[in-house]
Amino acid sequence: MNRALLSGHAAARHARAPIGSGFSDRALSNIRTIRTIEHSFRFWELTPAPEILLDAAVGNAYPATDGRGNFLVYLDGPTRARINLPTKDQPRMRVSVVGYLGTQRSEVLEPPYGSVFEISTQDDRGAWLLMRRID
After folding, report:
1. Distance between CA 90 and CA 87 in Å, rounded?
2. Mean pLDDT within 40-59
3. Phi, psi of 55, rounded to the nearest 5 degrees
4. pTM of the predicted model, to two decimals?
5. How far apart are CA 81 and CA 7, in angstroms?
6. pLDDT score, position 133
7. What is the DSSP string of 65-89?
């Protein structure tokens, strides 16, 4: 479901049990997380942005952009990835990590900063990284 949303699909769903997770606690938590992210990104405006991914050491990382200098990265389970942002103009950015149940931590990235970041999670349920320009 998360990868479908990152690909720009306007709608996605969890498959019903026993094939998918249906409306299990894990699926409901994932939906809650998606709703939290929707405050910052419209999923149907996103396009995949594999060019910002330098490498993923373990697992998978799925980056996307809205084309306006904002990025969203989904880490599918325990993963470490290096991201290279195309930020020549060094804008102030709000960087947020959204985890299980939609919990989030946020900080402002002030210039000057490097363009390469390493992000990681040890959580089996994955995590999201939101990077939004502050204009």
Report:
1. 5
2. 82
3. -170, 160
4. 0.84
5. 19
6. 92
7. E-SSS-EEEEEEEEEEEEEE---TT
